[in-house]
Amino acid sequence: MKVYLSGEIHTDWRVQIMDGAQGLDVSFSAPVTDHDASDDCGVAIMGDEPNKFWHDHKGAKLNAIRTRRLIEEADVVVVRFGDKYKQWNAAFDAGYASALGKSLVIMHGADHQHALKEVDAAALAVVETPEQVVQILRYVLLGVLPK
Fold first, then answer.
1. pLDDT recorded at residue 147
2. Staple 123 to which of 36, 55, 106, 113, CB 3.0 to 4.6 Å?
3. Concatenated DSSP letters of 46-111
4. Whose CA is closest to 2, among 20, 19, 21?
């Protein structure tokens, strides 16, 4: 099973899921989580931009090539909304995955419940922890419930 891990990049939730899924027949992909590399990829490859808008525009488009491909290839898309920043890109990824008919798992704390109600409505599962994502993967692949 191919799982794309989208969203918040400031905590180790991806590592927790990958570690917890050891032994399962799962391969993981994700966006570039090096914030500087993600922001600067467009100008690093296609040339400097004096205007910050165009700097960001180049990076966003270049990152979209990667993101679209990985979401399209995924069987399951997990989207994490963290507490520190508003992850507009995560909401976009969730919408794109939903439009493609991907199995969507949304992860966020209770404090985001109201703000993300439409995103949650598109998901097949809404969870709060990486361990719950691992339990979903284990159940889907093996039919095994947590102990």
1. 86
2. 106
3. H---SSHHHHHHHHHHHHHHHHHHHHHH-SEEEEE--SSS--HHHHHHHHHHHHTT-EEEEE--GG
4. 21
| CA-to-CA separations, 39 to 5, 30, 97, in angstroms, rounded | 19, 15, 22
Average pLDDT over residues 31-41: 94
Secondary structure class of 112 (helix, strand, coil): helix
Number of domains in the chain: 1
User: Tell me, what's the pLDDT at 99?
Assistant: 97
Specify if 38 maps to a domain: no
Give the domain extent around 86.
2-32+74-142
Both tokens of 138, joined, read 């284990």
Domain membership of residue 51 (yes or no) is: no
Burial call 5-21: b when 16+ CB within 10 Å, e when fewer: bbbbbeeebbeebbebb
Number of C-beta neighbours around residue 33 at 10 A: 12
